[in-house]
Write a structure and sequence with these properties.
This protein is an alpha/beta fold. The chain has one domain: Nitrilase/N-carbamoyl-D-aminoacid amidohydrolase, CATH 3.60.110.10. Helix content is 28%, strand content 25%. It has an eight-stranded mixed sheet with strand order 1-2-19-3-4-5-6-7. Strands 10-11-12-13-18 form a five-stranded mixed sheet, covered by helices on one side. Strands 8-9 form a two-stranded antiparallel sheet. The longest helix has 21 residues. It is an enzyme of class 3 (hydrolase). It comes from Ridgeia piscesae.
Length: 362
């Protein structure tokens, strides 16, 4: 049943009377957000290509000394296209085609920065503990085939793209890393950020493939704002979020792959709390679907051997430093969430609440 539930919001809308629903949503989501007007052509393409498209607006108060700093953020969640038994190259190419078609719609919605889900180029194989054929999905973070494709799209659409991949670092002993590559709107690779907390719980024992990253808490100064990437398991660590704030981030993306049985009660809390505590925008992205593998694997929690992790529950959302947040995307369907944010809100909230982080030494 949990895998079939479209979203928490759909249940609230169905069963709570309209006058009470407004108050319930205020308590759950903070101030009401305006709907972002999206082009009819984009909505038609989303329908044709069978993914959800939603848009919201985060406003800040007008200032005398600063112009609004408006940025359109896009989050993409998706399921795999081909079964895990298909040839590796075909699996990756099918995902590249799917994501390229969704990025095209993001461009029609004037998205400035788009972030894809964790290891989007592949099934989430990291708990099978099998090295082959899964390690063949790994590629260079500088000039791998997926990176080259995203460079072309970034330049074509004048869009910063955050591209999480399984990285193979041939210059440093052929190590593997769970990496997010930041590609500027000019098409150049700005750099990379590696996952710095590795889960070793239940099915998720990813240290079979890679260890903690060595890139620290990098912040990338893009044309559209200062961004950082806190990959998946890092969201459970408040100090991790804090360090991105200390280093000046205005938007922190959390590309993830997590299942309902493990983490769903925490999902709506962690990224939102980080936005409040650190006075920046947070973007939580999770994949959808259930991925079946050819061979059974066992977990660290004593359950019988099985061939899937369970349901990835989507529910991607954006949260603001004032505690407001968008509704989540579907728990079961591919989707693109577009949010127009005013980065001036970061300083305004700091001035109001004095929730400040500082790198100064006293």
């Amino acid at each position: 049943m949990s895998g079939e539930l479209k979203s928490l919001e759909s249940v609230l809308d169905k069963y709570i009377p309209e006058d009470e629903l407004r108050e319930v949503k205020r308590i759950l989501y903070g101030k009401k957000l305006g709907k972002l007007s999206l082009p009819a052509s984009a909505e038609a393409l989303a329908t044709e290509r069978d993914f959800e498209l939603a848009g919201y607006v985060f406003e800040a108060k007008p200032e005398e000394m600063r112009h609004p700093r408006l940025v359109n953020i896009g989050l993409i969640q998706n399921q795999i296209v081909l079964p895990t038994t298909a040839p590796i190259l075909q699996q990756r190419e099918a995902l590249c085609q799917r994501i390229s078609s969704m990025i095209e719609v993001a461009a029609q919605c004037d998205v400035n920065i788009v972030c894809l889900q964790e290891a989007w180029t592949m099934p989430f194989v990291f708990c099978t503990r099998e090295k082959q054929p899964w390690c063949e999905f790994a590629e260079s973070a500088e000039d791998g085939p997926t990176i080259k494709l995203m460079q072309e799209l970034a330049k074509k659409y004048n869009m910063v793209i955050v591209c999480p991949i399984l990285e193979r670092d041939e210059l440093h002993g052929d190590i593997l890393a769970n990496t997010a590559v930041v590609i500027s709107n000019s098409g150049k690779v700005m750099g990379k950020s590696r996952k710095n907390h590795i889960p070793r719980t239940g099915d998720f024992n990813e240290s079979t493939y890679y260890m903690e990253g060595d890139t620290g808490h990098r912040v990338f100064d893009t044309q559209f704002g200062k961004i950082a990437i806190n990959i998946c398991y890092g969201r459970h660590h408040p100090q991790n979020w804090m360090m991105y704030g200390i280093n000046g981030a205005e938007i922190v993306f959390n590309p993830s792959a997590t299942i309902g049985a493990l983490s769903e009660p925490m999902w709506a809390i962690e990224a939102r709390n980080a936005a409040i505590a650190n006075s920046y925008f947070t973007c939580a992205i999770n994949r959808v679907g259930t991925e079946q593998f050819p061979n059974e694997f066992t977990s660290g929690d004593g359950q019988p051997a099985h061939k899937d992790f369970g349901n990835f529950y989507g529910s991607s959302y954006v949260a603001a430093p004032d505690g407001s947040r968008t509704p989540g995307l579907s728990r079961t369907k591919d989707g693109l969430l577009v949010s127009r944010v005013d980065l001036n809100l970061c300083r305004q909230v700091k001035d109001k609440w004095d929730f400040r982080v500082s790198s100064l030494k006293y």
